C-alpha cells in the first residue's frame, strides 16, 4: 500500500509562491508522483481530485473547514479547470450555504469574504481530448478583490442572504447575482438538507453553495490578476 508523502505547510507567502511556480507546465501525473499519489482514470467518480492533489503538494491545512486553505497565511487556493487558455470551464465553488442559520450573519464575518480576501488561482487543463494524467497546470497568480469588485460581490451576497433570511428560497435562482451566485450543491437530487420556509416551517431542500460566475473569473485570468480600473 502506498504511503502518501506529507508536505509541511509553507511558512510564508513567498514560500507558497515558490512552490506553486514549480507546478507550471507539469502534468498531473508528474506532480502526483512527487507525493506518491495515483492518478485516477477520470474524474467522474473522483470529482475534486485535481484540487486535492494541488492542496497536498502545496501543503494546504484547512481540509474541508470553512477557512482559507492556508489558514495561517489567509490564502485560499482555487484550482480552476480551463476549457482553453484563459477560459474557465465552469463557475467556481466558494463555500456552502447554511440554510438553517441565517440570522446574525454579516458580510464582514462571512465565510465568503474570508475565502475571497486573498486567492491563489491555479489553472489546469480540462480539455476532454486530453487524458487526466496528461493535463498540465498553468501559471498561478495571487489576487485580492479591488474595492469595486468587493462591493459588487458584497451586494450579491447581501441580496441572496436577505432572501434566505426570509425563507424565500423559491425566489433564488442561479441567475441572481452579478459576480456571486447560489446554486444547488449535491451529488444528486436525493441529497437533501434542512431549511425553513417564510412561515418558519422546517422543510427539506437541496443543499446550496456560493459560486463565482465563470464570466467574472475569466476577467481575472485575462488580466493576470491585475486590478482593473472600474
Strand and helix layout:
Blueprint: H1 13-21, H2 28-34, H3 49-58, E1 76-84, E2 87-88, E3 92-97, H4 111-116, E4 119-125, E5 141-143, H5 147-165, E6 180-184, E7 193-196, E8 202-205, E9 208-212, H6 214-223
Parallel strand pairs: 1-4
Antiparallel strand pairs: 1-2, 3-9, 4-5, 6-9, 7-8
Helix pairs in contact: 2-3
Structure in words:
It is a single chain. This protein is α+β, with helices and mostly antiparallel strands. 27% of the residues lie in helices and 20% in strands. It is globular. The model is unreliable at 187-203 (pLDDT under 50).
Tally of helical segments: 6
Helix-residue proportion: 25-40%
Which runs of at least 5 residues are low in confidence (pLDDT < 50)?
A: 187-203
Largest sheet: 4 strands, mixed
The rounded Rg comes to: 18 Å
Gross geometry: globular
Strand order of the largest sheet: 2-1-4-5
Number of spatially distinct domains: 1
What's the mean pLDDT score? 85
Which topology does CATH recognise? ECO RV Endonuclease, Chain A
Q: Kindly, what is the distance between the CA atoms of the first and last residues, rounded to a whole number of angstroms?
A: 53 Å
Q: In what range is the share of β-strand residues?
A: 15-25%
For the record, the CATH class is Alpha Beta
Which structural category fits the helices and strands?
A: alpha+beta
CATH architecture: 3-Layer(aba) Sandwich
Amino acid at each position: 500500500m502506498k504511503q502518501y508523502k506529507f508536505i509541511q505547510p509553507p511558512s510564508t507567502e513567498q514560500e507558497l509562491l515558490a512552490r506553486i511556480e514549480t507546478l507550471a507546465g507539469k502534468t498531473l501525473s508528474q506532480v502526483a508522483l512527487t507525493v506518491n499519489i495515483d492518478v485516477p482514470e477520470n474524474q467522474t467518480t473522483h470529482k475534486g481530485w485535481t484540487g486535492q492533489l494541488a492542496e497536498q503538494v502545496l501543503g494546504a491545512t484547512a481540509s474541508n473547514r470553512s477557512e482559507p486553505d492556508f489558514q495561517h497565511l489567509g490564502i485560499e487556493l482555487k484550482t480552476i479547470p480551463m476549457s482553453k487558455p484563459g477560459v474557465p470551464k465552469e463557475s467556481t465553488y466558494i463555500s456552502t450555504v447554511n440554510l438553517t442559520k441565517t440570522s446574525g450573519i454579516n458580510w464582514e464575518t462571512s465565510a465568503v469574504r474570508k475565502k475571497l480576501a486573498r486567492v491563489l488561482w491555479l489553472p489546469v487543463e480540462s480539455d476532454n481530448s486530453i487524458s487526466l494524467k496528461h493535463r498540465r497546470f498553468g501559471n498561478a497568480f495571487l489576487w485580492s478583490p479591488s474595492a469595486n469588485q468587493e462591493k459588487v460581490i458584497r451586494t450579491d451576497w447581501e441580496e441572496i442572504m436577505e432572501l434566505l433570511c426570509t425563507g424565500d428560497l423559491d425566489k433564488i435562482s442561479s441567475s441572481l447575482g452579478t459576480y456571486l451566485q447560489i446554486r444547488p450543491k449535491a451529488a444528486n437530487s436525493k441529497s437533501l438538507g434542512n431549511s425553513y420556509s417564510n412561515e418558519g416551517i422546517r422543510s427539506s431542500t437541496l443543499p446550496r453553495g456560493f459560486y463565482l460566475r465563470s464570466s467574472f473569473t475569466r476577467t481575472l485570468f485575462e488580466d493576470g490578476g491585475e486590478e482593473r480600473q472600474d
